[in-house]
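User: Before I run my own analysis I want an independent prediction to cross-check against. Here's the chain; please return only the structure tokens and, at the end, one sentence I can use as a sanity check.
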Amino acid sequence: MPHIVIDLDPPQTDAPSFDGETADLVYFLSWAFSMRYGASHDLSIAALVMRTEYKIDLAPLLTFADRNVEDPADEEALARAWQDAAPLAECCGRVAEALGGNETRLVALQDEYPRLRSNIAALGRIAAWAAEQDARIRVTYELDD
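Assistant: Structure tokens:
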């Protein structure tokens, strides 16, 4: 099952973590990233709604990389995925709030992706904690256990 892996720089042994599976977050990140290419999946549409109607800057949330490095381009993408934690924390908070609202296109996601909102909220808490530690954060995913 796909899952999210968080790295902090400098490494933090006492960092908070996710409390369960994060596949819903992997799916959202992938489809939200595809939004710019015209994807019409429910998660891409949700990302578009958040960006256009809620005016959420999704760039921090869409800064992620595949953890599986197969070539130099993958290594470069992994290196580019480092970011300041505070903007990610703010973005996640706004996205989690939007997902908890009553916008029909976002409410409809709850049945198929029941952990999405809690995953994004948890990522926001991890990022906020990292910001308090003056640590950078990197969001990556793995497709296999």
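Sanity check: The chain has seven helices and four strands.
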